[in-house]
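>> received
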Amino acid sequence: MSIVKYLAVIFSLLLLSTGSLAQNYPTCSSAAADPDGDGWGWENNQSCIVSSGGSGGYPTCSSAASDPDGDGWGWENNQSCQVAGGGSSGGGSSCGTGSCPGSLNCPSGMSCGCYTVSGLGANKQAYLNAGADRRFLASAMMETERMDTNYAYGDNKTGDAFNAGATKQNWGMMRQCHAEWRGYSANDYAVSAAMNSSRSLDVQVYNECRNYYGNQWFAGHRNGSSGLANPNTQDINNFRTGYEWTYNQLAGHECDDVRFWVDIPAI
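>> returned
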């Protein structure tokens, strides 16, 4: 244990022994913050308490502010976390009722709807267990009915247009954002097919690409290099609007069989 961590832990234990509340300390967002396994970690220049994690192996969010929509899930340190005792359905659960809302407000000028798909909740949960958050779920929901990789190989595309994973990311973007694939050419697209059988890799690459491209991700995801070069077309803006609508509708439905759809023409 480093001297800084040692002193921090001693100070923490002294406070606890005098009646200070343990909840004044945030929960560590990662067990890696506690390499010696003593139950205390060091993150963001302060002590934190190592938790066994939320359901599905997720860390507990260190701050409720990481969950602005109150659905029980937050985003800290580039990964999903669960808010202790949070969630609109209580108990930290955000699975929802399994039923579609009574009414929907579709994006302007777009058709939308909701229905249930048997087994969809299990797929959602499997991706959550692999580290996905609502961003990933929304992207996958826009691509296939069951949010899986059971579609034509590469989505019938090759080269940089080749699609892989539940969110159908294109190879041109993935070979830039995923460090292990940098240096590969457009012709090496088959490498990314490994995402179709590895949810953890699928989620990892998705998160890396979202972080790497930022707001430009929508343009590149929708229209590849042409989209990145010209990111403000009406089609790209419509795609992003549809994604944001889907993301918002999923609040409280992260692991039930409810599927939301918005009419975005395939390209």
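>> Residues 30 and 59 are 6 Å apart (CA to CA).
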